[in-house]
Amino acid sequence: MYNVVGVRFKKAGKIYYFDPGDLPIQNNEHVIVETVRGVEYGRVVIGPKQVDENDVVLPLKKVLRIADQKDRLIVEENKAAAKEAYDVCCEKVNIHQLEMKLVDVEYTFDRNKVIFYFTADGRVDFRELVKDLAAIFRTRIELRQIGVRDEAKMLGGIGPCGRMLCCSTFLGDFEPVSIKMAKDQNLSLNPTKISGLCGRLMCCLKYENDEYESSKELLPDLGQWIETPLGNGKVVGLNILERVLQVEIPQHERVLEYTLDEILKEGAVSVQSTE
């Protein structure tokens, strides 16, 4: 077992584990840590706890110190410098007539590197751009191409639901989302209805998917004949989330609703699977 703290470097970024050592670190405190990118400033979102060896990436890097007011001032200065670097890079992109869209600029805490995030439809030859930027900023330059979902996460915005984007507020990782999830939830397959600002399928389709899948395994299929308290009937509608069936009963010439529990009391005997 390892004693660790979970640190985030961005509001909705991934959580990385670090060794707190003997430092009295509390949740929500800011700390200075060493990462593969260099020295970074982050916020503790998971207080000290014990985790299994399989849950950490070894060797576990240590927390260098708890951040102070001076460190916070450095972060603010880096943000201001990043805004200036953004304008400079946009100008250079136009001069070199590159088919790329600059999304964000970020300085590492120790100013050892400046990272430019951009989107593009294909590969971009930015060698001359890097030379110009290196001559201006006199530090290591990294141009990182990102996808449209990462762009939405960085820029933020308001989704079709009227709330701030999940990816920019609390989602640490993107999970695979498929059109099958929309079908299982009986949603409209109109791309404008199930797509987010990024143009990809909305992340929230994943949230209730496990519940729909487990409910679907218990419920009969559409068109299946089952036993009901009023006789044999054909399933003509399903409310998967509430586990409610709409059953057409020819004997009574009616369509009735039954819960799954009511049908199970009757044994849910299938008379025939289709018409």
Automatic annotation (TrEMBL):
Protein name per its UniProtKB record: Cell fate regulator YaaT (PSP1 superfamily)
PANTHER family assigned: PROTEIN PSP1
Stretches assigned to the PSP1 C-terminal domain: 61-146
NCBIfam families given in the database record: RicT_YaaT_fam
GO cellular component: cytoplasm
Pfam families reported in the protein's UniProt record: PSP1
Species per Swiss-Prot/TrEMBL record: Bacillus benzoevorans
PROSITE patterns linked: PSP1_C
